[in-house]
Amino acid sequence: MAAPSSQLGHHRYLPYPQASCREIEHHLHALAAAFPSSFDATLSPFTHDDGRDAVLVNATAALPVGAGNNAEVSVWLVEAYPRAPPLVFMSLPSLETAARPAYVDASGVVTAPYLQHWAWPESDLVGLLDSLQVLATLHYSTTEPRGYHHHAAEVSAHDDLCVASVARHRSQDDDVQTELRALQENKDRLEKELKRVTFNVNLLEKELKRKLLSTGNEIDGVAEPCCEASGSDNAAEESMDALDRELQAGRLPLCQYLKATKDVARAQFLDWPVPPDLVSLARPKQYYCASQCTNPY
């Protein structure tokens, strides 16, 4: 048995994206564990029906179908795999009492229901070969002669299950889209609220400065930058606390949390204003710096 290629992602001329290479390696390892005695995986040239040449992953296995017979299966992972089903060829043992199954044409191409209703990520190579082994074993069963109508009923039942599974996933997709629209509406509402609060804060700051000047309270050139720096630090700390709460509540992915944390740290280090989208996470607060800061000189 040849082990699946663990360096699949390092080949330079494969037609698969990097993310698909990792998924393919996972599927091949699972297939090797399910069929340890007959599994083999190679990189082989393949010619499409339109004449295009490509180097694709070819996985082969021998499926026991009863009475000491094996069905040789060759699975070619196309460029769009795993989102698109693979191309499957099957070589069946020749038995006088068994005709060629309806899901295998004269050239050996397989059109089983599992392939017709392929739905990634639920569908994989192990499930595909398991379904083919079940179909082939039922077809070559010697303990119970199977007629055409009985075989058609089995295929129809499996087809109904696949259709129901596809319908369920479509319903789940609709639910996800509805949730996304609700989240987008909530985001728009919060952005409008942020603009309103920011506008009010600016008005209050202007009014505060006007009142301080009118009452004769002087703010020297050292205390004012100190107050501004303290306000910036408070805004950065508030943003970091809000990011921590969003991450712990599961409303913020880890990658976005790390990026936002880096943005806040950079803004604080370079004395830049905290980005507005990060300020929106924190509850707006008004800091009266004049009462918190003292002139160090």
TrEMBL record:
One GO cellular component, as annotated: ESCRT I complex
GO biological process per UniProt: endosome to lysosome transport; protein transport
PROSITE patterns: SB, UEV
Subcellular location: Endosome
MF terms (GO), sorted A to Z: ubiquitin binding
Gene3D superfamilies, A to Z: 6.10.140.820, Ubiquitin Conjugating Enzyme (3.10.110.10)
Lineage, top ranks: Eukaryota, Viridiplantae, Streptophyta, Embryophyta, Tracheophyta
Keyword Plastid found: no
Originating gene: ga07257
Stretches assigned to coiled coil: 166-207
Domain SB positions: 220-288
Similarity section: Belongs to the ubiquitin-conjugating enzyme family. UEV subfamily.
Listed InterPro entries: ESCRT-I_UEV_domain, ESCRT_assembly_dom, SB_dom, UBQ-conjugating_enzyme/RWD, UEV_N
SUPFAM superfamilies: Endosomal sorting complex assembly domain (SSF140111), UBC-like (SSF54495)
Protein known as: Uncharacterized protein
Origin superkingdom: Eukaryota
Keyword field: Coiled coil, Endosome, Protein transport, Transport
Domain UEV: 4-147
